[in-house]
Amino acid sequence: MKLDKAEMGIWECCELLNEIVDESDPDLDEPQIQHLLQSAEAIRKDYPNEDWLHLTALIHDLGKILVLPKFGGLPQWAVVGDTFPVGCAFDESNVHHKYFKENPDFNNPKHNTRNGVYIEGCGLDNVLMSWGHDDYMYMVAKENGTTLPSAGLFIVRYHSFYRKHFFPYRCCFVSKYHNPFYLISTYLIAALHKYGAYSQFMKEEDKENFKWLKVFK
Q1: Packing angle between helix 186-195 and helix 204-213, nearest 10 degrees?
Q2: Which of 48, 69, 130, 163 has the most CB atoms lying inside 10 A of its own CB?
Q3: Is 178 annotated to bind ligand?
């Protein structure tokens, strides 16, 4: 992908989100810029010394500009909502899992096993994810030489990679509707590492970075 549509500062980009309401989120019927500011302020209050985390909260959803005509005018279904790994079996905890049966990969023996085309423990950075605003903003930050630490980039890239259901023997990401600020508890993160969907691909750095998702809102 060529990053040649515009050159702007962070605040200019934030202002563009005044034009966007995320249709995938029934709890937020306001322009996305408000969500960014509320998230950044909540993080700042709770973690005043982690300035990189304040910035991460502010920019995490800027990739949603992909729905604007200047940046491709993609339909919202191709930009917002959950993300999930491709190239391996679609975990049943994915939202609307039944519709994956229409995907050719569902019956492809190369792609429909637990590990698929990947090696266990390969690291999430080696796993292809469904396309969306997360990967786009991650790409923009990385290609522009961001000074965010790896945990910040991890949050930007994977904050939509959560699961909305819990099972007695499979604990996955908490739904963002669990509470108004989408908090993920330490217990649930530990459960994800041990039992969660796609946890077989995580390496130690992934598990360390996941600790920051418990405070991300």
Answers
A1: 150
A2: 163
A3: no
Q: Cα dihedral angle (28, 34, 35, 37), rounded to 10 degrees?
A: -160
Q: Is 133 annotated as a binding residue?
A: yes
DSSP 22-91: -TT-TT--S-HHHHHHHHHHHHHHH-TT-HHHHHHHHHTTGGGGGGSGGGT---GGGTSS---B-SSPPP
**CA–CA gap between residue 156 and residue 199 (Å, rounded):** 19
Side chain identity at 63, as an amino acid letter?
G
State residue 193's pLDDT score. Answer: 41
Q: Tell me, what's the pLDDT at 26?
A: 67
pTM for this predicted structure: 0.74
Tell me if 159 is assigned to a ligand binding site.
yes
For the chain, the straight-line distance linking the first and the last C-alpha, in angstroms and rounded, comes to: 29
Task: List phi, psi (to 5°) of 165.
Answer: -135, 150
The answer to whether the Cα torsion of 182, 13, 79, 198 is positive or negative is negative
Which of the two residues, 187 and 98, has the higher pLDDT score? 98
Residues 6+ apart with CB under 8 A from 126: 118, 201
Both structure tokens of 184: 């993920």
Give the C-alpha separation, 72 to 168, whole Å: 42
User: How many other CB atoms are there within 10 angstroms of residue 156's CB atom?
Assistant: 28
Reported confidence tier of residue 79, pLDDT bands at 50, 70, 90: very high
